[in-house]
Amino acid sequence: MSRVLLENSRLHGEIALPPSKSTAHRALLCSFLAGGGKVEPIIASKDMEAMKSAVSGLENGSKTINCIESGNTLRFTMPVAAALGKSVTFTGSGRLPERPIGEYLRLFEEHGVKCVSTGGKLPVSIEGRLTGGSYEIAGNISSQYISGLLFALPLLEEDSEIILTSPLESKPYVDLTISVLHDYGIEIAETEKGWFIKGFQHYRKRDYTVEGDWSHAAFFLAAGAVGGDVTVTGLDPDSPQGDKEITDILRRFGAEIEFCGEGVRCRKKELRGINVDVTQIPDTVPAIAVTAAFAEGKTTITGAGRLRFKESDRIESVASNLKKMGVDVEETPDGMIITGGEVKGASLCGYNDHRIVMAFSVAALFAHGKTEIDDAHSINKTYPSFFEDYNRLGGKANVISDGK
Q: CB neighbours of 249 closer than 8 A, spacing ≥ 6?
C-alpha cells in the first residue's frame, strides 16, 4: 500500500509512452495460438503478468488460471480455453470476481461446454470443447466478450457467426482485435449484424512489435491541455486504438494539438466545456473529467455506463474526487455533468484504480494547494513508471509506502 503527495507544477517536454497494454494482450494470445514468435516491447505491469501467466497456464495444462485483476485476460482466455477443450478453473482478485461473465456462461452451455460458478461470477470452472454455430450476444455489455470469441472461434472445425442483439459499444476495441488477428493470418468477415468466422483457421507464427499506448497518452496530453506543453512519442496516428480520439476531444476543449511524426504535442489554450459521448472510448473518461474541471462552463459526459463495472465504479470515483477538490459535478446514470471553476488540493481516494490515480495526479498539477492520493501502487496494474515519467516532465510527486 502507498500514497502519493503532489505539489503544483507544470509538465513540459517530451516523453515516450510505454507499449499498448491492449495490443500486447492480443498479440501475446495470438502468439501462443500460433505456436511462437516474439512479442515486444512489453512492460512489467500486473496486467501483463496476468496475461503471460494465463497463456503459460493454457500451454502447460494448468488446472487453475489466476487472471489477477485483468478483465482482458479473463474474457480473452476463457473462450480460447473452451475452444481448445481445456478443463480449467478461472480465478481472480480485486474487483474482477465482481465483474459479470454471465454471457459467456450462457453461450458456453449452448455450445457444448459445462460451466460451474456461483452466481455467474468467479471462480468459474469449464469442461468440454466449444462447438461452432450462432453466438447471439448483446453489444452493450463489454466488447471484451466479442474479442474473446473472435480469438476462439477460428480454432473450431465448424464455421461460426457472432450476432449482435443490441448496438455495439467500444467498437474500436473490437476493431483492434480484428486488426491484430489479421496480422496473425486470421480473417474475420463483418456482416450486417455482426461477424462471420470461418472455422479451422491457423494462426501464423511471426514476431510482433507493440505500438505505444494511446490510453496512457491521454493523461499527459490532458496535462498539456490544462496548463503545460507536452509531446508524447511512440504513438501511431493511424492506430486502431480508439483512445487516440483523445486528441480530437482535447482540441474541442480548445487545446492546441499538433501531430509530429510518431508523436503528438498538446499545449495549453483557453479551455471551454463541451458535450462528449464516450460510448466507444469509455477509458478516456477520467482524463476528460479532470480536463473539464479546468474548462470554463459546463461539460457533459454521456455513454459511460459500463464504467461502473471497472476496477472501481469510475463514474462514482471520478465524481467523488472532483467534489473533494471543490468542483461542481453532478453524477448521472451513464456519466456526469461538470462545471469548471476553482480546483482545490485535497486528500483523495485512489480506489485501487490505476486510471483514477493517474487522472487526479494531473488535476493536482494545477489545483490550489497540495494533493494526496491513496492506493498509488495501483498504477502497477498497467503503468509502473508513471510517476517517474511524471516527475521527469517537471511534476512533483512523492510516493510514500505505508510505514515509511
A: 274, 276, 284, 288
